[in-house]
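Data deposition worksheet. Section B asks for the primary sequence of the deposited chain exactly as it was used as input, without tags or linkers unless they were present during the calculation. Section C holds the resulting structure in token form. Section D is free text for depositor observations; keep each observation to a single sentence. Incomplete worksheets are returned to the depositor.
Section A, Depositor: J.P.
Section B:
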Amino acid sequence: MARRGMVDALREAHRVLAEGGILIDARPDSRVDARVQRASGPRFVTVGALGTRRDTALDDRLSDRAIGAVKRARLFR
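Section C:
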């Protein structure tokens, strides 16, 4: 089956994800500082950072649209 992009990749991730499993969106977002955080009680602690590139704005918008599409299809919350 030919793949057409991120929506197909997300559908495949949903197919292979264990029941009750968690899919983490860890792509850097050029619009904000990308930080890796962990929960510590009611707070979040920054434990690292991901580099971002300003020339990826179109990729970010397309990825956001793909995530929106699979959420509307109720594959993910």
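Section D:
The longest helix spans residues 57-72.
The beta strands are 34-40, 43-50.
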